[in-house]
Amino acid sequence: MQNTKSHVALLASPGLGHLVSVVELGKRLVSYHEFEITIFVLASEASTAQNQVLESTQNMDLVFLPSVDISTKVDPSANIVTKIIVMMQGSLPGLHSAIAAMIMSHRPTALIVDLFGTQAFPLADEFNMLKFVFIASNAWFLAITVYAPTVDTIVDEEHVVQQKPLLILGCKPILFQDTFEAYLDRNDMDFGERF
Q1: Rounded Cα gap, residues 158 and 154, in angstroms
Q2: CA distance 17 to 175
Q3: pLDDT for res 175
Q4: How far is CA 131 from the centre of its chain?
Q5: Buried b vs exposed e over 61-92: b needs ≥16 C-beta within 10 Å?
Q6: What pLDDT does residue 80 have?
Q7: On the chain, which terminus has fewer CB atoms closer than 10 Å, C or N?
Q8: The pTM is what?
Q9: For the chain, domain boundaries
């Protein structure tokens, strides 16, 4: 008998916070919409907390992608955002192989990623999958991410040099000390790739 449930793939970025959000989304898609869910997870040294999250994935398939060695691609002092972006880029061949290996009738019809997983969209296009970005963080993070491309030299001067709060329409001012490193350095690798 052929499975008639919609099959959705979720790609979890490295980090427990990303994994928890993706697993919770998967649980809701299973419970409320009866979707078949496959979660792609980058292999890493698992913590006790991560193991507990992964054990809570009843009725979902877990596929562990090969670990990605970024030691030759990123300076060890690079910020965590840069490291995550490079890890996600390095995970794409494993993700491609995993999806290609799925039996055609079992292959997901949609791919849901978080903000760091958008590099997988060309792969989703190749497999004719719908593409979605899931942002589980608060409105402030979404606002700063959407606002980042419009930051110009005046804001750079006021916020980065003079360390005045960054004003974003609809949000509380962001204090200089609360700014992500990637927004402070225009030459940072992930600033250039993301924005």
Answers
A1: 6
A2: 23
A3: 78
A4: 13
A5: eebebeebebeeebeeebbebbbbbbbbbbbb
A6: 82
A7: N
A8: 0.73
A9: 7-133, 139-194
Give the CA distances from residue 84 to residues 12, 18, 187, in Å, rounded to whole numbers and listed in that order.
11, 11, 17
Task: Map tokens 């849901």 to a residue.
Answer: 112
Q: What per-residue confidence (pLDDT) applies to 2?
A: 55
Q: Which residues of the chain have pLDDT under 50?
A: 1, 189-195
Q: What is the pLDDT of residue 159?
A: 72
Cα–Cα dist 176/164, whole Å: 6
Side chain identity at residue 53, one-letter code: V
Please give the positions annotated as active site.
Answer: 18, 114
Both tokens of 8, joined, read 């959705």
What 16-20 contacts at long range (C-beta under 8 Å, 24+ apart), as own/partner pairs, is 16/47, 16/49, 16/50, 16/53, 18/114, 18/116, 19/50, 19/53, 19/54, 20/53
Structure tokens of 31?
A: 């419970």
**CATH code of the domain occupying 7-133:** 3.40.50.2000
Polymer length in residues for the chain: 195
pLDDT at 193: 47
Is-contact 50 34, C-beta < 8 A? Answer: no
